[in-house]
Amino acid sequence: MPLIPLLITLIVIGVLLGLVNTYIPMDGKIKGILNAVVVICVVVWLLYAFGIINHSGDIRTPRLGERGASDQGAALCRDALPA
What we know:
mainly alpha; 3 helices; 66% helix; elongated
């Protein structure tokens, strides 16, 4: 996901949450629950957006012992060259 739309979305969510907290009268406990739910939803959405969690629920982590990115890039370039 491109960075600019991501930042705009986060700003809009923050402004809307601030407006709800400021102008809608509700008990402090309910505001706390609402804020926690919104933050959890945004964090999960960001994890999906950055590809850390995919839609099957698997969490992607780097594996130790695999070739590094520079090794993989060199192998790709070597394979792309004509023989």
